[in-house]
Automatic annotation (TrEMBL):
The keyword Transferase does not apply. Keywords: Cell membrane, Chaperone, Isomerase, Membrane, Transmembrane, Transmembrane helix. The lineage of its organism: Bacteria, Pseudomonadati, Pseudomonadota, Alphaproteobacteria, Sphingomonadales. It is found in: Cell membrane. The keyword Transmembrane helix applies. It comes from Sphingomonas gei. InterPro entries: PPIase_PpiC, PpiD_chaperone, Trigger_fact/SurA_dom_sf. This is Peptidylprolyl isomerase. Belongs to the PpiD chaperone family.
Length: 648
């Protein structure tokens, strides 16, 4: 959910762009992914002040807009994060903190005498692919239209690009020359060689008695505390009209007149011709080519080439123009005049010497109009179909640009309008797990989730590589909300009982720790606790480097963070219970004599050094400047966001 956001803020450029420059980065450097950008506050604006950095004020309105934009971008990517989830994971604090970082860098840069010239910003705008016209050059009209569509003024856009440039200059400079001495790397490399032994047991939820089913009061209270578990992501109902090549094929069939005209203009395409297959060896030295020719007379050309350390190649069933393209005109003339199976060469062609043999000659008869008709009809129909699709798309696009509604555009183009069920950004229907949408619906839903609100201008979007496209309009937004208890009662009862069993499993596992640390064997401790179901205890003996990775079991992660002769517990995935981990021995090993291990660790640490320098540098900037946070205003903003459930 927000984990990738947290990881991003730890990267060099993540420190710059998250929230603070999100709008300008998304538009200026994502070239084409420009939907969903909303006006930002630039350098200030109305609303309560949540923080001050020098003379710069950060308002609650700016924070709202950044959060709103962030959530919409997540939704476009198919990640349906609610405001409740965002706030619960510290999103507001991250937003405010990163906006302070951005403002601090701009303030520090300006105090230090840095200046971003108008010429530099003009150059970046002019070279941005998003602002290029059909002629491949910068289009002022395209620039203004894109900013207008996304509710960004040119002044604000330039200000944000200027601020982003300050941040890049400062952070890039701070992270140059970050080298890691071996004394820093060695302890980490040695950790990889550390060996641990022990045993792990599982106190499974299935081994616990969850107790009686809850009554209505208990179940309702429990459901209200776990509403996020039953959240249905935001869905949207779209109206759309598909245009596929198949629907236009009847209008684009080739006529007899078109076929006859194409045949007439085909030149020698359907005339009688000859194809030849030629075995060819190329050498840079005449003597070597002569040796190949001599040996080829007694055997094959391929074997002769191999003996000389060369490689023969075959030009298979080519007409003369193709041979001209692949070799040369002179060679083609000679090869098509040579007798079949005769060995020719060495002959000089350019800087090379060639030895070749014509191994096959195929005479291709001329084709009459009737014989060429199927091929020409297919080509003409394909060309007309591509032109018809392009013309129809342009016509619909122009109509929408002139203010036509979805219904008007569909009627004028004689299309069939359809209505989607309430679907997520990924095209799934939470109310019907068996629902399998047409693959084209995925592109349609992506476009629908990029629209701000119902009633906005319809969008023309490509849906397949064959030229298919769709006209899409947002009809209704179904906000993210938990399913009513009545709809999921059986599931909630089951989840409640599992949670009760999990609580008991934790209590049992906790009680086992003292016994294990006193020397009671794991199997005995489980038996005394009444754990009769679940897998048996499992001994382990691993080096840290053997178990590192994204799929590392939770109990092994715990085992490598404990002292010897100690026990700890860790919750298993999917509420399966609690693992009780006991570490018996720890063997430490030095990596001083293992350069490969040191180099691997250095390679893993190196990407973290630059971001760490950047964080420390930004922290120093904040300490240098006068930064104040209005905690009361931040708390008030949190309350408002919690109540509204939206950053809008």
């Amino acid at each position: 959910m927000l984990n990738f956001f947290r990881r991003f803020t730890k990267s060099r450029f993540g420190l710059i762009v998250v929230f603070v420059f999100l709008a300008v980065i998304a538009l200026a450097f994502a070239a084409g992914d420009i939907t969903g950008i909303q006006a930002n506050g630039g350098g200030g604006g109305g609303g309560g002040i949540v923080a001050k950095v020098g003379k710069h004020e950060i308002t609650d309105r700016e924070v709202r807009e950044r959060i709103d934009l962030f959530l919409r971008n997540l939704q476009r990517d198919g990640q349906n994060v609610t405001m409740e989830q965002f706030l619960a994971q510290g999103g507001l604090e991250l937003a405010v903190d990163e906006m302070i970082n951005g403002a601090a860098m701009v303030e520090f840069a300006q105090q230090s005498g840095m200046q971003v010239s108008k010429k530099l910003i003009d150059g970046e705008i002019a070279s941005n692919p998003a602002f290029l016209g059909l002629d491949g050059k910068f289009s002022q009209k395209q620039f203004e239209e894109l900013l207008s569509q996304n509710r960004i003024s040119p002044i604000t856009f330039r200000e944000q690009m200027t601020n982003e440039r300050y941040a890049n200059w400062l952070v890039n400079r701070a992270t140059l020359g970050s080298q890691i001495p071996e004394g820093v790397v060695l302890p980490y490399a040695s950790l990889l060689l550390e060996r641990r032994t022990g045993i792990v047991g599982l106190v499974s939820t299935i081994a616990m008695d969850p107790g009686p089913d809850p009554d209505d009061k208990v179940l309702t209270a429990w459901y209200n505390s776990k509403r996020a578990r039953y959240m249905v992501p935001e869905r949207r109902i779209l109206r759309y009209a598909m245009v596929k090549p198949d629907t236009l094929k009847t209008r684009t069939a080739a006529t007899e007149a078109e076929i006859a005209e194409a045949y007439k203009k085909a030149g020698n395409r359907f005339a009688a011709t000859q194809k030849r297959t030629i075995e060819l060896v190329t050498a840079l030295d005449q003597n070597i080519a002569g040796q190949v020719a001599a040996k080829a007379k007694a055997g094959g050309l391929t074997a002769a080439a191999t003996a000389a350390g060369l490689e023969a190649r075959t030009l298979t069933a080519l007409e003369k123009p193709a041979v001209v393209t692949q070799v040369s005109q002179a060679f083609a003339d000679a090869a098509f005049a040579a007798a079949p199976d005769a060995l020719v060469g060495p002959v000089k062609v350019g800087p090379s010497w060639l030895v070749y043999r014509v191994t096959k000659v195929e005479e291709v008869a001329a084709r009459t109009l009737d014989q060429a008709r199927p091929e020409l009809a297919t080509e003409i129909a394909a060309r007309k179909l591509a032109e018809a699709i392009a013309a129809l798309r342009q016509s619909i696009d122009d109509g929408v640009g002139d203010g036509k509604t979805f219904d008007e555009a569909v009627a004028d183009a004689k299309l069939a309008a359809e209505r989607s069920p309430a679907l997520t950004a990924a095209g799934a229907n939470p109310d019907d797990p068996a629902f399998k949408p047409d693959p084209a619906i995925t592109a349609v839903m992506r476009a629908g989730f990029a629209v701000e609100q119902a009633g906005d201008e319809p969008q023309v979007v490509p849906v397949a590589e064959d030229g298919s496209f769709a006209l899409v309009a947002l009809e209704r937004i179904v906000p993210a909300a938990p399913r009513p208890l009545a709809q999921v009662r059986d599931r909630v009862v089951k989840d409640y009982l599992v949670d009760q069993a999990l609580i008991k499993a934790r209590a049992v596992a906790t009680a086992m720790i003292a016994k294990l640390e006193k020397g009671v064997p794991m199997q005995q401790a489980l038996a005394e606790a009444g754990v009769t179901k679940g897998p048996p205890p499992k001994p382990f003996d691993f080096k840290r480097q053997d178990v590192l990775g994204p799929n590392m079991a939770p109990y092994l992660q715990m085992a490598f963070s404990m002292a010897p002769k100690k026990a700890k517990l860790v919750e298993g995935p999917n509420r399966e219970g609690y693992y009780v981990v006991y570490v018996d021995t720890i063997e430490e090993h030095s990596a001083a004599s293992d350069p490969a291990a040191i180099q691997r660790v250095r390679g893993g640490i190196a990407p973290q050094i630059g971001p760490e320098f950047a964080r420390q540098f930004i922290g120093s900037i904040r300490n240098h400047l006068k930064v104040t946070r209005n905690e009361k205003a931040i708390a008030q903003l949190r309350a408002e966001l919690t109540r509204s459930g939206s950053a809008r």
